Amino acid sequence: MDSSKSINSNSSDFSTSIGDFKLEKEIGEGAFSKVMLATNEISSKECAIKFIKADESISEKNLKSFFKNEVKVLKKCDHPNICKILGYSYRDSVPGKENYCVSYIALEYMKNGTLFDILENGALEAKYTRVLFKQVLSAIEYLHKLGYSHRDIKLDNILVSSNYDLKLADFGLASKSKKSSTVKGTLYYMAPEVVAEKEYNTNDSDLYAIAIVLFSMLTHSMPFNVASKKCPLYRKIMTDDWASFWKTHSSSKLIDNDFKDLFAKMVDPNLELRLSISEILDHPWMKGETATKEEVVKHLKTRIQSEVNLTKTQNKEESTNMAERTGYFNIRSAGKLMKYLEEFAKNEKLNYKTCPNYYRMIAEIGKKPKDLVLQMNILKRHESYQRCVELILINGKKKDFLNFKSKVEEFIASRQNN
Ligand SMILES: Nc1ncnc2c1ncn2[C@@H]1O[C@H](COP(=O)(O)OP(=O)(O)O)[C@@H](O)[C@H]1O
Ligand SMILES: [Mg+2]
């Protein structure tokens, strides 16, 4: 019998060796995949192995097509800021498991996590942001010249190499640069023309997404929830009420007039006016102070080595101010809730450290013994659950956050009393 299976999210499901690779530990998880650190038994080199994850919400056929797509695009790429493919298999047998096959992609191992992880320690000063952002621009320029669009550019899909260079990854949604009207990508990074389900050019929407990445790097928050009229902050942009938009973000000390001008032009809904990559590079903000490579490495090293300190007064104040004024939370301010969940996970001996962010940590909790699942379901039934999960990743409405937080507090207290 010939049955090919996607990997299940439970890592004990597969053996510790696949093909030439000895699997070491889980290092990441995305919507479609589980990623493990592995060693090539022939070369002794470390690499990352990305497996397709089984999920009821999406057919295996579709998953395989994402997977084959990613392999196809990655094989064409050869750029210092794009994560390299080292091998792949659509059906590799698993030792000791008859009739069981897995599909995987072997990738260059990005030892220092994602850009999202880097930002957990706060905003990056402009001099570092410029250097790192240029690397992202260079990757996208290369990809577009090759005739492809990425279509899911975001902090989690930009990885940090052992040399502290940024590399674009996750090409599951990439396609030939073209006109499309399919809503693809991640909501926070979706251009207005994508959200509106109009016909759009896939390269233009990549350029919009990098504006959101740039904003997050420099401010440690998202500019708005979604590029749609429904989002009050985005409405300000559409009505050209930039003054009010920037007032909302006035706690971000690193925003200057040049940056305001650059960002506004990068997210322009008018595609004729939205900046191209060369125009971005020529913008006065990009010509500002730039750190040397050594300084960038030194800075990123300290960020990666230092534990995220969620109780730092300065950060706490920054979050509270932001929340009070805007009704929105930035990445840091969701930290308190994360902290609760982290402590909870620790007490329950859940493997939270292997989860790249806390949305996934909740998912981990969801898989644990029945009574925990039941109790977590109380939270899940809460109508704001879905949005709070988004908030944990990026930001969200203050009311939802507070509701959710008090539920978590109650839940933790009830467990501690028992
Ligand atoms: N080459 C790699 N080296 C180290 N970590 C990786 C690598 N590729 C992916 N990861 C981790 O796994 C996560 C999911 O990988 P990704 O390719 O984005 O999958 P998905 O398509 O499911 O989003 C990433 O956000 C990152 O944390
Ligand atoms: Mg991803």
Describe this structure in words.
By secondary structure, this protein is of the alpha+beta class. The chain has 3 domains: 11-108, Phosphorylase Kinase, domain 1 (2-Layer Sandwich), CATH 3.30.200; 115-304, Transferase(Phosphotransferase) domain 1 (Transferase(Phosphotransferase), domain 1), CATH 1.10.510; 309-417, TATA-Binding Protein (2-Layer Sandwich), CATH 3.30.310.80. It is built from 16 helices and 12 strands. The protein has helices at 60-76, 115-119, 126-145, 192-195, 202-219, 232-238, 242-248, 257-266, 277-282, 293-305, 313-326, 335-347, 358-366, 370-381, 385-393, 398-417; strands at 17-18, 21-29, 33-40, 46-52, 85-94, 97-108, 148-149, 158-160, 166-168, 175-176, 179-180, 200-201. It has a 6-stranded antiparallel beta sheet with strand order 1-2-3-4-6-5, with helices on one face. Strands 7-10 form a two-stranded antiparallel sheet. Strand 2 (21-29) and strand 3 (33-40) form a beta hairpin. Helix 12 packs parallel to helix 13 (358-366). It starts with 16 loop residues before the first strand and ends with a helix. Residues 1-13, 307-335 and 350-398 have low confidence and may be disordered. The structure holds adenosine-5'-diphosphate (ADP) and magnesium ion. Magnesium ion (MG) is lined by residues 30, 156-157, 170. GO terms for molecular function: ATP binding; protein serine/threonine kinase activity. Keywords: ATP-binding, Kinase, Nucleotide-binding, Serine/threonine-protein kinase, Transferase. Pfam families: Pkinase.
